[in-house]
Design brief:
Elements: E1 2-13, E2 18-29, H1 33-37, E3 44-45, E4 49-63, E5 66-84, E6 90-108
Antiparallel strand pairs: 1-2, 2-4, 3-5, 4-5, 5-6
């Protein structure tokens, strides 16, 4: 089953020329026992996973219909990876992965 337990956005208008947004989210996947028993590539299987993200963006509006902005996002994912060894022994390895994203944006509306 998939559970989204929180998504939040907060807009902070500073002035007519500047805008800041902050946001965050959290999601969780709980694999059913039948999915955990499935095997891919003859060795890997499904597992539970959680992911969360936080970020913010800043925009400058120097003229009408033109916007320059920057955005930063940090995400973390934790997942159970199930391995089956040649001896039919099952091992659950907990893996965690971090990701940083930075974007620059220029937008012109016509």
């Amino acid at each position: 089953s998939f559970h989204v337990t929180g998504v939040q956005t907060c807009a902070l208008p500073i002035s007519d020329k500047y805008r800041i947004n902050a946001f965050g989210s959290y999601g969780q996947i709980q694999a059913p026992e039948t999915a955990k028993a499935l095997v891919f590539d003859a060795k890997k299987g499904f597992g539970d996973a959680t992911v969360w993200s936080v970020g913010s963006n800043f925009a400058w509006l120097p003229t009408k219909d033109f916007e320059l902005g920057v955005e930063g996002i940090y995400s973390n994912m934790k997942q159970d990876i199930r391995y089956t060894l040649a001896s039919s022994t099952n091992i659950v390895k907990k893996e965690s992965d971090d990701n940083w994203t930075l974007r620059l944006r220029a937008e012109r509306r016509f």
